[in-house]
Amino acid sequence: MTPDPAKVAILISGRGSNMRRLIDAADNYEVVLVASNRPDAPGLDWAAERGIATWSEDSRGQDRAAFDDKLAVAIETSGAGTIALAGFMRILGPDFIRRFEGRMLNIHPSLLPKYKGLDTHARALEAGDAVHGCSVHVVTEELDAGEVVAQAEVPVKEGDTVSTLEARVLAEEHRLYPAALARFVAR
Ligand code: GRF
How would you classify the pairing of strands 104-108 and 131-138? Predict the structure, then answer.
């Protein structure tokens, strides 16, 4: 199938709250596939109940290139021309990234280029930052390093813990990601 930029595949590994927002807010794009490297990801059932095609396979213990290739075939078969990573916790290999170059977005819970990788909220608290936030960026081979297409800031408040700060950032993620994806598919 010829990939259509307005057809979106979402990749998840877990609860999928960003995935739900991307689906509920879909306007100028259509979510045609939700794929996961964890067959028990709660987001899969939610998507299936809404009639969206799902694909999953446990990536644990699998050769990276072999798993990536199966995932890529599922995406290509769906006709998706845009891929939105939403809490997808497996690193994608260089061949996969090249196959979908410039067509993949990710949401990351920090103000990139600050705090690439994991434990972003703890690191922002540890550093005593007054502001924290989230970024939507293009996925490239280097982790969390592609072009930032949208960002939202939140204040860090007195007495914040990782969970209070995470909740404040997540609320912004839910607002930011659908808007950024809508702009991305139209560009
Ligand atoms: C979000 O914080 C996102 O920024 C990060 O992983 C988390 C996924 O949460 N990449 P959810 O599965 O979308 O609820």
Answer: antiparallel
For ligand 1, atom 1: residue with the closest CA: 87
Query: Can you give the residue ranges of every domain in the chain?
Result: 4-186
The set of protein residues with a Cβ atom below 6 angstroms from ligand 1 is 12, 14-19, 86-87, 107-109, 134, 170, 173
Mutation to probe ligand 1, out of 13, 85, 107 (largest number of atoms < 8 A from CB): 107
| The residue to which tokens 């290739």 are assigned | 69
- 91 HSE (CA, 13 A, CB side): 10
Pick the CATH number of 4-186 from 3.40.50.170, 1.10.10.10, 2.60.40.420, 3.40.50.720: 3.40.50.170
- pLDDT per position in the chain (187 positions), as tens? 789 999 999 999 999 999 999 999 999 999 999 999 999 999 999 999 999 999 999 999 999 999 999 999 999 999 999 999 999 999 999 999 999 999 999 999 999 999 999 999 999 999 999 999 999 999 999 999 999 999 999 999 999 999 999 999 999 999 999 999 999 999 9
